[in-house]
Amino acid sequence: MASQYSMQAQTLVNGLPATQIDVTDRALAYGHGLFETLLVLNGKPVFYPAHLQRLMNGCMRLGIPAAGLERQLETDLECLALPETPAVLKLILSCGSGGRGYLTPDPASPLRILMLTPMPTYPDQPERGVQVRWCSTRLARQPLLSGIKHLNRLEQVLARNEWSDPAVREGLMCDTEGWVVEGTMSNLCFIKQHRFCTPLLDQAGIEGVVRNQLLQLAADLGLETEQGYYTPAEVESAEELFICNSLIGIWPITRLGERRYTPGPFTAKLQAALQQRMISC
C-alpha cells in the first residue's frame, strides 16, 4: 500500500488557481486531450523536455493547437510552489470547450490543467521486486494513437479492474493480435541473452519517457538494445524482467503468474544509472 508525503496539493487551470472546468470541455465529452505525469525532485520536474516533446507530438496527432504552449506551461510552472521533497506533477491538455459533435471547433481554445500532489511512498519496497500478472483485456492496434499519452484510458481501466489482490502490483497487456505491449501503468523491459528488450510501440501503447531513457542507459552499459514484437512466452523466458515509468523508476518483476524471477545484475545497474540521471537532470 502507498502512503504520501505531507504537502499541500495545488491545481491551476489556464494558469489560475481553480478546481472546475466547463462541462462542454472536449476532454470530458470525448477524451480529446493529452496528459503527462512527471516526478518532481529538488523543486524541478524530472525529464521535463522529454515530456514536453511527447506532449507536442500528441498535439500534432490530435489536432490541438500548440502555438505558444511551451511558454504558457513555463509560466504555469512558475506559479506552482514546487517542493524540494518528491512530488507528482500531472499536466492535462484539453482541446477545450465546444458544441455538440466530433468536429474540432475552429478556432479551438486548449485548456491547461496542472495538478501538484504528494508523491506516494511504498513501505513494501517494490523497487526490490513485485508480482505482476497477465491481463485478458487486449489493447486495440491504432497507429494514429500509439506512443502518445492521450486521455482515452478505458482499456487500462478495464484491465486494472481484472484483479483486486494488493500483492499483484501490475498487469501486463497484449494487443488484439497477441503481442505483448506494456503494463496498465508502465512500460515493460527485459534482459535476454545480453540484450535489453522492450516491445515496439508502433501500433499500441505509450512511448514512456523513462523507457526511452533506459534504452540509452542500456546501450551505455554495453547491452544490445532491441525493440520488437514479443509473445508472452518469449517474455516469460527472459532472464530479468522489470516495469518502469516516470514515478516508480524501475520495479523488478519477481513473479509473473506462476513463474518466479530473481532481480538480476543488469536491472540493478539500470536502477542505479536511472536514479543518478533523475537527480542530475
Fourth CATH level, the homologous superfamily of the largest domain: D-amino Acid Aminotransferase, subunit A, domain 2
Beta percentage is: 25-35%
Q: Using only CA atoms, what is the Rg?
A: 19 Å
Q: Report the total helices.
A: 7
Average pLDDT works out at 96
H and E string: EEEHEEHHEEEEHEEEEHEHEEEH
Tell me about the largest β-sheet. 9 strands, mixed
- Total strands: 17
State the separation between the terminal residues, measured CA to CA. 29 Å
Q: What spatial form do the alpha-carbon principal axes imply?
A: globular
List the uncertain runs.
none
Helix content: 25-40%
Brief overview, please?
The chain is α+β, with helices and mostly antiparallel strands.
What does this structure look like?
- This protein has 281 residues and is α+β, with helices and mostly antiparallel strands.
- It has two domains: 3-121, Aminotransferase class 4, branched-chain amino acid transferase, N-terminal domain (D-amino Acid Aminotransferase, Chain A, domain 1, 2-Layer Sandwich); 126-280, D-amino Acid Aminotransferase, subunit A, domain 2 (D-amino Acid Aminotransferase, Chain A, domain 2), CATH 3.20.10.10.
- 25% of the residues lie in helices and 30% in strands.
- It contains seven helices and 17 strands.
- The chain has helices at residues 26-30, 48-62, 69-79, 154-160, 209-220, 232-236, 265-280; strands at residues 3-4, 10-13, 16-17, 33-41, 44-45, 87-94, 111-118, 120-121, 130-134, 168-174, 180-183, 187-192, 195-199, 224-228, 240-245, 249-256, 259-260.
- Strands 9, 10, 11, 12, 13, 14, 15, 16 and 17 form a nine-stranded mixed β-sheet that branches.
- Strand 4 and strand 5 form a beta hairpin.
